[in-house]
Amino acid sequence: MILAFDTYYFDNKAKTVCLVFEDWSENKNFRIHTEIIDNVEEYIPGEFYKRELPCIISLLNQINLKNVEAIIVDGFVYLDDDKKYGLGGHLYEKLNKEIPIIGVAKTNFASIEKNKKPLLRGSSIKPLFITSIGMELEDAFHKIESMAGEFRMPILLKELDRLTKE
Q1: 19 pLDDT more than 90
Q2: Orientation angle between helical segments 49-60 and 87-94, nearest 10 degrees
């Protein structure tokens, strides 16, 4: 089982959505979990995890994590090459280092060079930036690369983004 999370912020609230699917190449068979939380933390540059991590953890508490192969987050696992934790790293710690985390970011983060891998999908000239913890970066890269869809964003991650903003 694979979980993918995204959160959308509005009116001092956060809507978090999780897609649950069984195969990396899946394009339409998934389950949806969603939750809206009031009074979320303000955004602090470099400390984004303080805002989003509580939202993800709250929704994770509603899901049986027994057979989770990996969790995908919208963002970075590390913020620099000294492995300072970003959202994905903090989530990995919260889960007692038991579930691998893959970060898929749409924009680059300049302070990290060696612990990320740019992924060009389809005919896009703008890469996705892949980071991981609990699994080799190369393995995480190939898993995201193998996801269904002919464009930059895999179909399920594009659907997750749409559902989060809906």
Answers
A1: yes
A2: 40
